[in-house]
């Protein structure tokens, strides 16, 4: 969705951890073998939900807001999903149309998008949703 960072965590931090493990623990590993878990998932999730509700109000519906690492955003719009994805991309926002998950296209006008936020810093979520 918005401004994804490295899904394994900040590279510089992983370099430092790798060096520490080698020097003080005798463990040889590369930064690519280290994953730094992103704290605050629940806070990020809640912030994304609250910001979507504030920004989109009645124009959008959040499906499965208590589920996993993605949010399904349903909106009514005259543009196609592909056009909306392209517009979001121009604003440096990555969203994915949920249509790829369907065996047959539905016969309704609303559009559904998967929004991920796990690798996004808290301080960029509000700006990203507003740009969307």
Distance between the termini: 9 Å
How are the strands ordered across the major sheet? Answer: 1-2-4-3
The H/E string reads: HHEEHEEH
Which CATH architecture of the domain at 41-131? Alpha-Beta Complex
Coarse structural class: alpha+beta
Rough shape? elongated
Stretches where pLDDT is under 50 for at least 5 consecutive residues are: none
Q: So how many helices? A: 4
**CATH homologous superfamily grouping of the domain at 41-131:** Aspartate Aminotransferase, domain 1
Q: Output the CATH topology of the domain at 41-131.
A: Aspartate Aminotransferase, domain 1
- How much of the residues is beta strand, in percent? 15-25%
Topology:
Elements: H1 11-25, H2 41-56, E1 60-63, E2 70-76, H3 81-90, E3 96-97, E4 110-116, H4 122-131
Antiparallel strand pairs: 1-2, 2-4, 3-4
Helix pairs in contact: 2-4
Description:
- The protein is of the alpha+beta class and 132 residues long.
- It has a domain at 41-131: Aspartate Aminotransferase, domain 1 (Alpha-Beta Complex).
- Helices cover 39% and strands 15% of the residues.
- It has four helices and four strands, in the order ααββαββα.
- A four-stranded antiparallel beta sheet has the order 1-2-4-3, with helices on one face.
- Strand 1 and strand 2 (70-76) form a beta hairpin.
- Helix 2 packs parallel to helix 4.
- The model has no long low-confidence stretch (mean pLDDT 84).
């Amino acid at each position: 969705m918005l401004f994804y960072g490295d899904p394994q965590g900040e590279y510089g931090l992983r370099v430092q951890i790798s060096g520490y493990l080698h020097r003080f623990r005798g463990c040889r590993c590369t930064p690519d073998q280290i994953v730094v878990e992103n704290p605050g998932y629940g806070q990020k999730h809640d912030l994304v939900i609250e910001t979507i509700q504030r920004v989109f109000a009645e124009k959008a519906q959040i499906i499965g807001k208590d589920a996993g690492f993605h949010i399904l955003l349903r909106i009514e719009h005259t543009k196609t999903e592909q056009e909306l994805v392209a517009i979001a991309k121009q604003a440096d926002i990555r969203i994915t149309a949920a249509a790829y998950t369907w065996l047959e296209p539905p016969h309704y006008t609303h559009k559904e998008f998967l929004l991920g936020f796990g690798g996004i810093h808290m301080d960029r979520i509000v700006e990203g949703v507003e740009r969307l």
